[in-house]
Amino acid sequence: MVHYLVKIIFLVFIIMPKNIHSCSILGFDREVHILNNLPPNSPQLEFHCASGDDDLGYHYPAIGTDFNWKFCAFINTLFFCHFWWGDKDLPYDVFNSVDSCVWDGEDFVPPDTVKCLWKVQDDGFYLGFFDENVNENIYKKYRDW
């Protein structure tokens, strides 16, 4: 019986249209957004993000712009970023929990959050999420620079 079930599951994934992302069907798709919300005329924000499998490279977003990526998240998925702003630099995990973006993010985002939002500001790092109306819900997460 188990062998028969495995064959059916395998066939479903083989014949599934290529434009349907299997990760979203299974509910494991996630997004991370990093918004440069630093003051005008401040030093350039730079960050480098990566996981064990993906190096997303170095980024230099203009003020008010959003760098984001989508991925298939599982229990052990981890994305970290190293941020530089002028003479300041800080590394942070930006995703390590399929439920709340980061393990200690339960106070900031509801369970099963799909779109994690980070705002980088001059007074610290803010974590939030987009609700079903695409409203931002944001809370200060990490200390000042």
From TrEMBL:
Residues 1-22 form the signal peptide. Keywords: Secreted, Self-incompatibility, Signal. It is found in: Secreted. The keyword Heme does not apply. Pfam families: Self-incomp_S1. The keyword Cell inner membrane does not apply. One of its GO terms (biological process) is rejection of self pollen. InterPro entries: Self-incomp_S1. GO terms for cellular component: extracellular region. Belongs to the plant self-incompatibility (S1) protein family. This is S-protein homolog. The lineage of its organism: Eukaryota, Viridiplantae, Streptophyta, Embryophyta, Tracheophyta.
